[in-house]
Design goal:
346 residues; alpha+beta; seven-stranded mixed sheet; five-stranded mixed sheet; 11 helices; extended
Length: 346
């Protein structure tokens, strides 16, 4: 990376130097028409000045963190594909509190020995709060730990979801191997964590793979059917055949519902189906699913499930005096129209 100012005095370009004082910052970026990042800037959250409003009561002044701080870094993409730093100002006009850096997400980390201890104590029935506070005492205070109680609780929640009962992992793998030996078209994928514990699963039998070749234009994906005793979401890929019947196109067992796991599941399913993308996919209004679909199925039309949309009618409209008639009109427009123009008119 090149520097438009004095690179010799710029600590950002010297990896041996570390800025000890944390700086809470705002980030801005600009992309071109091709989606490529062209410009980015990072500035202190206390930059700018408070905008005074005439209607503000002078007897009740509002507090503001905006004090015109000039600390910022800006960079622009050059023709050679590298970013040039056009602005580098590391001087703040206010005091900084280095000990607060442990609250920033970028500095939060649970080290492996701490993870082991959290899990072991959880398995013997020690609560998260008691578990965490014992670590605080040993470390010599909250500021000596790189995570807080909420981080510990979130980690235990994830660890519980990954933890299978004794013998379950072996039984599961033996089942998959037996099914594959009976029919080589049986497909399965097992995702494990760094300790080789099963985290996510995907499988599809020969009938599902054959059905997708014939009825794979539109696929419905849902994780709301049920959860098992391990509190792991059960995900289904479902299609519709020429008789209007639902057909199973693959199954997944997930440790959680975040973007990375959905990406793994979608890629596993796509690989199983010979990399043949569906023309459309229907899901509920889950942001993580939406982001994963944009990554794995960029050319597939993504639509929200009609049932999930319609079930919100009471929530959104029940407070109106003409709720019943409005509900009937909406249902009529949705279920009793067959063309786009007719739907738009109603």
């Amino acid at each position: 990376m090149e520097n438009g100012s004095n690179s010799a005095e710029n600590p950002l370009l010297n990896e041996s130097e570390k800025v000890e004082e944390p700086k809470r910052a705002y980030k801005t970026q600009v992309c071109g028409n091709d989606g490529e990042l062209r410009y980015f800037g990072i500035e202190c959250s206390r930059s700018g000045k408070r905008i005074k409003k005439s209607e503000v009561n002078p007897l009740k002044p509002s507090l503001s963190t905006k004090i015109g701080c000039k600390a910022r870094v800006r960079a622009t993409l050059q023709k050679d594909g590298r970013f040039m730093l056009t602005t580098v100002n590391l001087d703040h006009n206010h005091d900084l509190i280095p000990t607060d850096s442990r609250h920033f997400a970028m500095n939060k980390k649970i080290l492996t020995p701490m993870k082991r201890r959290l899990e072991i104590n959880d398995q013997v029935g020690i609560g998260v709060s008691r578990n965490y506070h014992s670590m605080v005492v040993e470390a010599g205070g909250y500021e000596s730990l790189t995570f807080d109680e909420r981080d510990a609780r979130n980690y235990i929640d994830r660890a519980r979801k990954l933890r299978l009962g004794e013998g379950d992992s072996d039984a599961l793998q033996k089942y998959f191997l037996r099914m594959h030996s009976q029919n080589s078209s049986f497909y399965y994928m097992i995702d494990v964590d760094t300790d080789f514990r099963i985290r996510n699963l995907f499988w599809a039998d020969a009938m599902s793979r054959a059905a997708y070749k014939e009825f794979g234009d539109v696929v419905s994906f849902d994780t709301t059917y049920l959860t098992n005793k391990y509190d792991m979401p059960f995900a289904l890929f479902v299609g519709v055949n020429h008789h209007g019947q639902s057909i199973l196109l693959g199954c997944g067992q997930l440790s959680s519902e975040d973007i990375d796991i959905f990406v793994w599941l979608f890629k596993s399913w796509l690989n199983c189906m010979s990399d043949h993308h569906p023309k459309a996919i229907i899901t509920d209004q889950c942001k993580a699913m939406q982001n994963a679909i944009e990554i794995v199925f960029p050319n597939t039309r993504h639509r929200w499930c009609l049932w999930h949309i319609m079930k919100k009618i009471p929530e959104k409209l029940k407070g109106y005096s003409q709720y019943e008639s409005m509900k009937m009109d909406l249902q009529n427009a949705v279920y009793d129209t067959f063309t786009k123009d007719e739907f738009e008119m109603k």
